[in-house]
Design brief:
The protein has 332 residues and is an alpha/beta fold. Helices cover 51% and strands 12% of the residues. It is built from nine helices and seven strands; from the N terminus they run H-E-H-E-H-E-H-E-H-E-H-E-H-E-H-H. Helix 5 (167-195) links the parallel strand 4 (149-152) and strand 5. The longest helix is centred in the N-terminal third of the chain and has 46 residues, at 13-58. Bound molecules: NADP nicotinamide-adenine-dinucleotide phosphate. The site of NADP nicotinamide-adenine-dinucleotide phosphate has 29 residues, from helix 2 and strand 2. Belongs to the short-chain dehydrogenases/reductases (SDR) family.
Length: 332
């Protein structure tokens, strides 16, 4: 009895193998062709986008008009938040809303912004408390109207090592610095999507990309907030009129990191809160997704991705970032 051919065809073995080879060859050819086409299309688009960005660096770009925007800044009473309120007001924002826990500084900033001729309101709200965020957001909508620019700026730093930190303090940083952004964004984003007009801003930190010892709570919360913004930014790609900006500043001279000391302060001077605020508002007006401050921090990202861990550890020790939190006196 003749054996039943395995491929169900009575072709002779040689013929069958030639046929198989040709099917494989055609399939592979098609795959390679598609890959090349995709690469070509991608690289053309990439070249266009990179060229566009490079031109944008040298030519003055058109800044978005803020005169119809209502801006809400969490932690807007002091530090970078207060400077952001000044900057948004100076650049013509319609209304400014400040959130925070300390009434005294919220009141002072509100008065100052009103004197600049901009409508300003403040609300006491702990962004780490989900229910409080939703209730205050409702009150803002009723009293002020729709928020079209949300700046997630509020944050705290406990500033200790893991074993020296009590559990509640560790939780508090995560609640305020990371989860707080979930709640505020959930409260205001739906209306922005309806209006097809909105911008979510996150004041993050370079410590999200390169952590230091002695601020484990803060670095963890900022790295998590970075991932949150990365995911949110990509998720907004097909939402017309709504986008996001993440700002990653280096050490800035506010009360937050009081007492922190780097080894070469002249080489790496702290940023001024005015500079961070100005560059942040500009990034919103330019619809820039990511802003590292100062620009030299890009070198940090590159070094981190190419150097071996031992070499990175030497840099940390040499630059003093390894011990900079030993003198920290800040407050939460
Ligand atoms: N300073 C730096 O070296 C530096 C560097 C990189 C990035 N950043 C980032 O920049 C942002 C602003 O920092 P900063 O230097 O201006 O700090 P800051 O002077 O300590 O101000 C922090 C602000 O957050 C508010 N805040 C804290 N917890 C809050 C809560 N639970 N609910 C509502 N508001 C709260 C504070 O107001 P109340 O205390 O009144 O609530 C205050 O207005 C932060 O996200 C920080 O991580 C700072």
């Amino acid at each position: 009895m003749r054996p039943v051919p395995r491929w169900g065809s009575p072709r002779r073995p040689k013929e069958r193998s030639r046929c198989l080879h040709s099917t494989w060859a055609t399939g592979l050819g098609r795959f390679v062709y598609k890959l090349l086409l995709l690469r070509k299309l991608l690289s053309v688009k990439m070249i266009y986008l990179v060229a566009k960005a490079a031109v944008g660096l040298v030519l003055p770009a058109k800044l978005r008009d803020l005169s119809r925007e209502n801006v809400l800044i969490t932690g807007g009473g002091r530090g970078i938040g207060r400077q952001l309120a000044r900057e948004f007001a100076a650049r013509g924002a319609r209304k400014i809303v400040l959130w925070g826990r300390t009434e005294k500084c919220l009141k002072e900033t509100t008065e100052e912004i009103r004197q600049m001729g901009t409508e300003c309101h403040y609300f006491i709200c702990d962004v780490g408390n989900r229910e409080e965020v939703y209730q205050t957001a409702k009150a803002v909508r009723e009293k002020v109207g729709d928020i079209t620019i949300l700046v997630n700026n509020a944050a705290v730093v406990h500033g200790r090592s893991l074993m020296d930190s009590d559990d509640d303090a560790l939780l508090k940083s995560q609640h305020i610095n990371t989860l707080g952004q979930f709640w505020t964004t959930k409260a205001f984003l739906p209306r922005m999507l309806e209006l097809q007009n909105g911008h979510i801003v996150c004041l993050n930190s370079v410590l999200a990309l390169s952590a230091i010892p002695g601020a484990i709570d803060y670095c963890t919360s900022k790295a998590s907030a970075f991932a949150f913004m990365e995911s949110l930014t990509l998720g907004l790609l097909d939402c017309p009129g709504v986008s996001a900006t993440t700002v990653l500043p280096f050490h800035t001279s506010t009360e937050m990191f009081q007492g922190m000391r780097v080894r070469f302060p002249n080489l790496f001077p702290p940023l001024k809160p005015e500079t961070v605020a100005r560059r942040t508002v500009e990034a919103v007006q330019l619809n820039q997704a990511l802003l590292l401050l100062p620009w030299t921090m890009h070198a940090l990202v590159i070094l981190k991705s190419i150097l071996p861990q031992a070499a990175l550890e030497e840099i940390h020790k040499f630059s003093g970032t390894y011990t900079c939190m030993n003198t920290f006196k800040g407050r939460t």
